[in-house]
Amino acid sequence: AYDGMIKFTREGMLEHGIGKLLKKTLSGEGVRLTKAEGNGHLYLADNGKKVTILDLRNESIFVNGNDLLAFQDSVKWDIKMMRKITGMMAGGLFNINLEGTGLIAITTHYDPLTLKVTPEEPVITDPNATVAWSGHLIPEFRTDVSLKSFFGRGSGESIQMEFKGDGFVVVQPFEEVYLQGKAQ
């Protein structure tokens, strides 16, 4: 919904260059973007998920593509590949990197929890509940596979993301599992 004088324009296939087109095609991340310009109020939603506005101030953040709702034109974006193959097993090899100054809107199932990461206290998360993290943090994927977890009797997650350094991680109290492009 919106009020005022807002013009909507869908992006062209090559609007962001052939490199981004190839990344979007190969990664499956994101849909075609729509630009909203003008004066008024624009109200966005994503299947009842909670919307949180973040104010980037010459900063960088990684967001899972299915949790990114909107961002200002002043924020630059790119699709980045995760380093380890375990990232694919954990729900995806690609994430959206946003950087610059401006507002971004992320979505979560229920209220998000922001965890502080320090060199003394790394943060370990479930990849399917991880929504976003500081752009300078590079998560390492860990596996915690035992005979019990192999037979379905283990507790906890067999694949985890570990964040070390200084920054933050945003998680949600919900595990998003995507099969053939649809949330389960």
Q: What report would you give on this structure?
A:
This protein is elongated. With 184 residues, it is mainly beta. The two termini are 27 Å apart. It has two domains: 1-43, no CATH class; 44-183, 4-Layer Sandwich (Double-stranded beta-helix). It has helices spanning 18-27, 86-89, 147-150, and strands at 2-10, 34-42, 50-63, 68-71, 75-81, 94-108, 113-117, 123-125, 130-134, 140-143, 159-163, 167-171, 178-179, 182-183.
Based on secondary structure, the structural category is mainly beta
SSE string: EHEEEEHEEEEEHEEEE
Quick one: CATH superfamily of the largest domain?
Mitochondrial biogenesis AIM24
User: Which percent range fits the helix content?
Assistant: under 10%
**Count of helical regions:** 3
Q: What is the CA-atom radius of gyration, in angstroms? A: 17 Å
Residue windows where pLDDT falls under 50 for at least 5 positions: none
- By CATH, the architecture of the largest domain is named 4-Layer Sandwich
Q: Beta-strand level of the residues, as a percent range?
A: over 45%
Number of domains: 2
**Can you identify the CATH class of the largest domain?**
Alpha Beta
Describe the global form. Answer: elongated
User: Distance between termini?
Assistant: 27 Å
CATH domain topology of the largest domain? Double-stranded beta-helix
| Main sheet summary | 7 strands, antiparallel
Mean pLDDT: 82
